[in-house]
Design a protein that fits this description.
Elements: H1 2-10, H2 14-23, H3 27-32, H4 34-50, H5 54-61, H6 69-82
Helix pairs in contact: 1-2, 2-4, 4-5, 4-6, 5-6
């Protein structure tokens, strides 16, 4: 699923990419590979940033652990695009 999302992202088909990343965050995968699920949420947030849907990007990033640098980076990107920083 990660690869499908990546292909859609590179093709700038962000809504489809976000859907693939969200599919990769399903509870089934949370039990087997929690770090992958977090990456999927962050990638989905990046897709929403590209779509300028900052509310949805914020919702996605809140599902990620707050103690990771990559999560803070995405939060920063959302703030910059919204003019909050």
């Amino acid at each position: 699923m990660w690869q499908y999302g990546g292909r859609k992202y590179k093709a700038k088909r962000w809504p489809e990419a976000a859907d693939w990343y969200l599919a990769g965050s399903h509870k089934l995968f949370q039990a087997t590979n929690p770090p992958s699920v977090t990456k999927c949420f962050r990638k989905a947030a990046l897709c929403y940033i590209e779509q300028r849907d900052f509310a949805q990007a914020s919702t996605m990033i809140r599902r990620c652990p707050a103690n990771e640098a990559t999560t803070h980076y995405v939060i920063f990107l959302i703030a910059v695009h919204q003019g909050l920083s």
